[in-house]
Write a structure and sequence with these properties.
α1 runs antiparallel to α2. Helix content is about 65%, strand content about 0%. With about 180 residues, it is mostly helical. The chain has one domain: Fido-like domain (Fic-like fold, Orthogonal Bundle). The protein contains nine helices and no strands.
Length: about 180
């Protein structure tokens, strides 16, 4: 799993280096690739063995009209004026709230997407450590219990986003930034 996440971080670094907007409608396949890296890494044999799952994820990703990828991309665009901390927090919440964006690997892929948003703005990436793991997982569990549709998350979203952004900012460690 760690190797797969490191492949994901390398992918994120490459996107940032090439100034690719991961959260633009024309780049949706890159989000699927990020999820595939989280699940399978770069090993072609593992990907061949998981081809059925990857195809099902692709279908789920594009066919989910109740809070799927369109929800995440549109939310991010509507909040482009906010800080990277708030956008990262909000996108993560939107990815984890029901229905989740991917069949599997939402937390790991979401952490990488948050890292992309933060690093693109020159902020340290989101890194899970022994010290912050419990609180991070508690936040994540709270988000997975929410539904994107309906009034509840709409009303709670500003508070959740601000509080989680504060948590992310408190965990930020410049040593996780790549030297320029």
């Amino acid at each position: 799993m760690v190797d797969h996440l490191m492949s994901g971080y390398a992918f994120i670094d490459s996107l940032i280096e090439h100034k690719v907007d991961l959260l633009a409608f024309g780049q949706l396949r890159l989000l699927l690739e990020l999820n595939a890296l989280v699940l399978c890494g770069q090993d072609e044999q593992v990907r061949l063995e998981a081809v059925g799952h990857l195809k099902a994820t692709d279908k789920h990703f594009f066919d989910n009209v109740d809070g799927g990828i369109r929800d995440v991309i549109e939310w991010h665009a509507l909040h482009a004026h906010e800080s990277a901390w708030l956008r990262a927090a909000g996108v993560y919440i939107r990815m984890l709230a029901e229905p989740e964006l991917f069949i599997e690997g939402n937390h790991r892929t979401g952490a990488l997407v948050m890292s992309y948003i933060l690093a693109r703005a020159g902020r340290p990436p989101c890194v899970l450590t022994v010290d912050n793991a419990k609180a991070y997982l508690d936040w994540s569990a709270l988000f997975t219990g929410k539904r994107k549709t309906g009034l509840a998350l709409r009303c709670q979203m500003p508070w959740l986003k601000y509080r989680f952004a504060e948590f992310l900012q408190a965990q930020a460690n410049p040593k996780f930034l790549r030297a320029a």
